[in-house]
Write a structure and sequence with these properties.
By secondary structure, this protein is α/β, with parallel strands linked by helices. Strands 6-14-13-12-11-7-8 form a 7-stranded mixed sheet, sandwiched between helices. Strands 15-16-19-18 form a 4-stranded antiparallel sheet, with helices on one face. A two-stranded antiparallel sheet has the order 1-2. Helix 1 crosses helix 3, helix 11 packs parallel to helix 13 and helix 12 crosses helix 13. It is globular and about 90 Å long.
């Protein structure tokens, strides 16, 4: 029979074998721990008094076991240094398994792949200060399970910010925090399916991962045409029960949804009972003019607003939010369920502090200037060689290429040690769109130190 013990503040399980006597059993347990490497060489053991108290045995028993192991060379004992595992004790290692050789894969040094901000610009110092304040001020109940919608402190902070910066009607009671946009979309897909919706209209160009989320929930996706004025919302019919749009900055074409098409989307929702899912993923970043307010402001009862910190701060925070119409809150929470966790309460409290202190606004303004400079440098670098389409906004731009050259330019970029993405992978398989060759270039993602060589590699790859 074996007993396991946790000792001296760290978890160390010593198997004390019955029938051997306490001293002998303890000596063998320590010997095995040193031999196997669970007690690495140099580890300081507790005093015989502390160890005996922890194990509930006599101090002399521990002292005798220590003396035996010192004599054998498993332990060392020096005045002022305590008792430690000897350097000669080496763990037994199994024979090394034969190495499996894989073909060498050459990674590319530079990347302009879309989907990420400059994570090196994350405001570590300001975030740490907000985290300290959040932890200091956190009520005891913040460490419990809490409200399924998320911490009220963050919901209140977001309500104020979204109303001020994005024109969103956001009651804190109707804000639901989630682990990012994909998490929110998956929840809404389940809600739509529970409402017997069978089809969702999506933009003809967009992320396949979003279409896949909808389709895995049993929803068919119907593509809308996309042009320089954004999605052609006038083509919405009574078939879809919802439409997913990126009104502020269409991804990836870079268009902004015009006022007429915004009104058409809202009119469609009102007349059919449908819902508009608004993805406002980079709405804070507009460079040629004041950013346009969210579509949700036109009809808070028919538009579900979806936002995230992935582009403004960092995707690793796994922080997003939904502003849900009053009549849908119970349905959203029902499909979410009690076991669907989101970001930690402390991260939520930290973001609340970050927003209310004004640090979030300062950070967004600083990143807006950085991204605007990068876009200007990109446009200047490719001038006269390819066109740049889309509004001056967000973290990416579309470089229009001569017909039939998209794949060739991507291969040419790889020879320059540069990873780039073409426009073709973003096209819905059923979309009836004119043929178009282009690159979707993320000027936001490279680190500051890599921006100049990345831009040079891009220009070298262009026709």
């Amino acid at each position: 029979m074996t007993e396991s013990w946790a000792t001296f503040g760290a978890d160390l399980h010593l198997d004390l074998v019955s029938g051997r006597g306490l001293r002998a059993g303890l000596a063998e347990a320590l010997r095995e721990a040193a031999r196997s490497g669970r007690l690495p060489a140099g580890t300081r053991l507790p005093s015989s008094r502390a160890f005996a108290a922890d194990l509930g045995i006599a101090r002399n028993t521990v002292a005798q076991a220590y003396a035996e192991l010192v004599a054998e060379g498993w332990l060392t004992a020096r005045q002022g240094s305590g008792t430690r595992v000897a350097e000669r004790a080496r763990p037994l290692r199994p024979a090394a398994a034969p190495r499996v050789r894989h073909p060498a894969r050459r990674g590319l040094a530079y990347s302009l792949m879309p989907g990420s901000p400059d994570v090196g610009g994350f405001p570590r110092t300001a975030w740490l200060a907000a985290a300290r304040r959040a932890l200091t001020d956190a009520p005891g109940e913040a460490f419990g399970y809490g409200d399924g919608r998320g911490r009220i402190e963050l919901r209140e902070a977001l309500a104020g910010y979204l109303a001020r910066a994005r024109g969103v009607y956001a009651d804190p009671e109707r804000i639901v925090l989630c682990g990012g946009f994909a998490h929110a979309l998956a929840l809404l897909a389940r809600m739509l399916r529970a409402r017997r919706v069978r089809e969702v209209a999506v933009e003809g160009y967009g992320l396949d991962i979003h279409r896949n989320l909808l389709e895995r929930a049993g929803l068919r996706t119907r593509p809308l045409g996309v042009d320089a004025d954004g999605a052609r919302t006038g083509g919405l019919t009574s078939g879809p029960g919802a439409v997913l749009l990126t009104p502020a900055h269409q991804f990836p074409t870079g268009a902004a949804l015009t006022p007429a098409r915004r009104a058409a989307a809202v009119d469609w929702a009102r007349s059919t009972g449908g819902l508009v899912l608004e993805d406002d993923y980079d709405g804070e970043f507009r460079y040629d003019r004041q950013q346009v307010g969210a579509l949700q402001g036109l009809d808070p009862d028919r538009v579900l607003y979806l936002g995230t910190a992935s582009k403004s701060l960092a995707p690793g925070l796994r922080m997003g939010w939904m502003v849900v119409p009053p009549g849908l809150l119970d349905e959203v929470m029902a499909v979410r369920g009690a076991g669907d966790a989101t970001s930690s309460a402390l991260d939520q409290l930290t973001l609340a502090q970050f927003i209310t202190s004004g640090a979030y606004d300062r950070h967004v303004r600083g990143m807006r200037l950085r991204y605007r400079r990068r876009r200007d440098e990109l446009v200047a670098a490719v001038a006269g060689r390819v066109g740049v389409s889309g509004i001056a906004a967000g973290l990416h731009a579309v470089l229009d290429l001569p017909e039939g050259t998209e794949r060739a330019v991507i291969r040419s970029a790889a020879w320059q040690d540069l990873a780039v993405e073409g426009l073709a992978p973003f096209r819905h398989p059923e979309a009836e769109l004119p043929a178009r060759d282009a690159l979707v270039v993320s000027y936001g993602s490279p680190a500051a130190s890599a921006w100049s060589p990345t831009l040079a590699a891009l220009t070298a790859a262009l026709p």
